[in-house]
Structures are given as C-alpha cells and as structure tokens.
Amino acid sequence: MLRIVPLDDGEEPYRSPDLGWDGVAGDLILNSLLHPTAPGDFRAEQGLATQVLICLMTDRRVEPYELRDGDVNRGWIGDSFDLGPGETPIGSRLWLLRRSALHEGIETLVEAYAAEALQPLIDQGAAVRVTATATADRPASRLTLDISLYGHDGAQSFNRKFEILWRQIDGVDRPLAR
C-alpha cells in the first residue's frame, strides 16, 4: 500500500485523488468546472473508498503453486522481492477465482481474500475492523461482496457492495465486467 508522508508540517498534506470503478476499470475522477475551490482538478474527497478499490481491484501477485495450468502471475512484480519491513503485497487474490465455478463454499474463500486484501488499511490505522460478507446467487451466476470498515470510535466508516459475475462458460477474461 502506498503511503505518502508530508516532509514539512507547514505544507498541506497530499490527498490521493479519488478513483471511480465502472465494473471493468478504475479511473481518476475530476471535479466539475463549476467546483468552488478546484474546478477541473482531481477530486480528492473519498480517500477511504479509493483505498478500498485499490486493495480489492488490484491483482495481488501470488506464489507459483497457487496458479492453475496456463495462468500467468499478475500483480506488481516488486512485491516478489522488494517488500520493506512491515509492508505487505498490494491487491487481492480475487483474480484467482475468475476460472472457478460458483461452487458451495466459495463465499468463504472470497471473504478471506477480501479481508486479506483490506488488512493494510487496518495496519495503517485507516480502520480498526473490516467485515467482508459474500452472498452467492447461483441461478444468476452472481456473487455479492459486502465490505464494511469501522473506525476507532466503533462507527461504520465505509460500506459498499460489489457484484462479481461468474461467466466462465463464455470465456470472458474480465469477470467483473457488466
């Protein structure tokens, strides 16, 4: 997880721009030209939501034994050899499930992969607790992942549902696409 620390206490801290997710790809969000303080600039109002998107939707590099035949490892190659003390690889292993059937018990695996991906937010103090709840709708070939984060005061600071479609039959290589 990228952490940016300001060097001078007098300077305004850098705020990461917000990312939007359309089900296929993430993109930076811009303020409208009528924005009162930063017209046309990058929007930076939902830092926690952006971090959740980065954690869940970025492919995490995995060990070779976790790959199926024909799979090519994904993720930031630097995570294989350049992790500093206390750092963890970025992203999730959800991409490993793109060729899986929506079988009984896959919900548990999805929840574990999501919780693992979001652990850096706890480690860095952005949240104190994360819940990930996966619910399968097998007739619709869909799985819903409900993510909640809780702050130091115990209040819910983030809640969003993500829909993951299983389309292994038609060979779609991006199962999150709508």
TrEMBL record:
InterPro entries in UniProt: Phage_Mu_Gp46 (IPR010877)
A Pfam match: GP46
The protein's name: Phage GP46 family protein
Organism per entry: Mycoplana ramosa
